[in-house]
Design brief:
The chain has 19 helices and no strands. By secondary structure, the protein is mainly alpha-helical.
């Protein structure tokens, strides 16, 4: 353990304060650069239009046709609601920037509580300038919200590790549930965090603590907290579509676009293609849930007919996740989704630097600290291999990459300049026990 005098105070350490202000400046600069930009006809259009529909009292029904819609999770349109009047697009971009800044602050708090002083400072500097964080913050899509909520979830998991009380366990479930309403794959955080929270509650240091819950109760409360958040949306969807729908009706589109000739047989292998989901006669006149069901069936049949090529497709998906294949077409796709091309390339270069450092950090930090950063990484890896590889899919794990990279740099520095403190991990505030 580090001596108590070495603990950082979030708002007093000049490196932490300076990094946060720099991060705010970068995000505001991006907002100014986007002022007046036309919204592309992509997922961003759905989020913006759905928020306007909510503002008009239409609920989760289409702004133009009034039909039920669950193309994506509900949280982003709900959070955009306050900015969905007047100059809507610019107002929504500004509000998304605010959410991105709040996510940056949350990540800074987590870094200070989890890492050594040096590791925390480095992580905060990285978070401030890392393109794969700030490029999302003025875009009207779910990534910025998801990134922030992943940081909140990791912070809540750390709090449960320190104090496995009923309130902290429930709050962890709530955080995971909210993340799942922003990006549906993040609902996997709930069971993952429940298992990890259960393991934390079993640790010897909590024995005899009157505030401690039984380990099984901790895990159950995490699951219950997540269910409280997610269940109303699931129930709403089950009541209004022809086919059973849980979180979104977009799973069929995603599944089919990732499993077709274009994304299995061409240079776009391992990615997703809109061309694969257009012009399907079977979906004409169907409601979104029926369309999604048909698309899932077609995708499953395609996989069954081409299983011999599946290993190569999985390798390509993983290579795209790691930014070692398909860089040009991923950049092109990101630009179509409202990102600046130069920022995407800068993000790719930054990833090449940070990813190896993150591997070092994950290897060097204490096991219980490793369990804090692993859940979003696991979710992204699973999602990539089930669907496709791309920067949007990877976005929720970027906060974990930042933390691990900060720990990795600190660990390498500690090896270069050995210190006398009993904690030799370099990147982690607490030692393994």
């Amino acid at each position: 353990m580090h001596h108590s005098g070495e603990r950082l105070t979030t708002w007093r350490d000049p490196w932490i304060v300076g990094a946060c202000f720099a991060g705010v400046g970068v995000r505001l600069a991006m907002l100014v650069a986007r002022r007046g930009d036309v919204l592309p006809f992509t997922d961003a259009f759905w989020y913006s239009a759905q928020s306007k529909a909510l503002r008009k009292g239409l609920g989760f029904n289409g702004l133009l046709d009034g039909q039920p819609t669950a193309e994506h999770g509900p949280l982003t349109p709900i959070l955009l609601w306050p900015a969905s009047s007047g100059d809507v697009v610019d107002n929504q971009r500004a509000l998304m920037t605010v959410y991105g800044i709040l996510g940056l602050a949350t990540l800074a708090v987590l870094a200070v509580r989890l890492l050594t002083p040096l590791g925390a400072r480095i992580a905060c500097v990285i978070a401030a300038i890392y393109p794969n964080l700030w490029m999302h913050d003025s875009i009207i899509m779910s990534e910025s919200i998801a990134i922030g909520l992943v940081s909140v979830t990791m912070l809540a998991l750390l709090t449960v590790r320190q104090r496995p009380t009923w309130w902290n366990a429930g709050a962890l479930g709530l955080a995971g549930g909210l993340a799942g309403l922003a990006r549906s794959e993040l609902v996997l955080l709930i069971p993952l965090c429940a298992i990890i929270a259960w393991s934390f509650a079993r640790r010897p240091e909590h024995v005899g603590d009157d505030r401690r819950l039984a380990p099984l109760a901790v895990g159950a409360l995490v699951l219950a907290g997540g269910a409280v958040v997610v269940a109303p949306w699931v129930g709403h969807n089950l009541s209004r579509f022809e086919e059973p729908t849980l979180l979104t009706t977009n799973d069929g589109t995603t599944w089919l676009g990732a499993n077709c000739d274009v994304t299995w047989e061409t240079s776009l292998i391992g990615s997703w293609s809109l061309a694969c989901v257009l012009g399907i006669e079977e979906t004409v006149g169907k409601d979104p849930s029926e369309r999604s069901s048909i698309q899932r069936q077609l995708a499953s049949e395609y996989i069954g007919d081409n299983t011999g090529r599946l290993p190569l497709v999985l390798v390509a998906r993983g290579a795209r996740l790691l930014d070692v294949y398909g860089l040009a077409d991923m950049n092109e796709g990101d630009v179509k989704e409202d990102k600046f091309g130069w920022a995407v390339w800068l993000g790719i270069g930054s990833w090449w630097v940070l990813a190896p450092l993150a591997v070092v950090g994950i290897a060097r930090i204490a096991r219980r600290d490793r369990l804090i950063v692993l859940p979003p990484i696991i979710v992204v890896i699973v999602t990539t291999f089930l669907f496709y590889g791309g920067h949007r899919i990877r976005a929720p794990m970027e906060p974990a990459v930042v933390l691990a990279a900060g720990a990795g740099v600190a660990a390498l520095w500690a090896r270069r300049r050995p210190i006398s403190e009993p904690d030799g991990a370099g990147g982690s505030r607490s030692a393994s026990t």
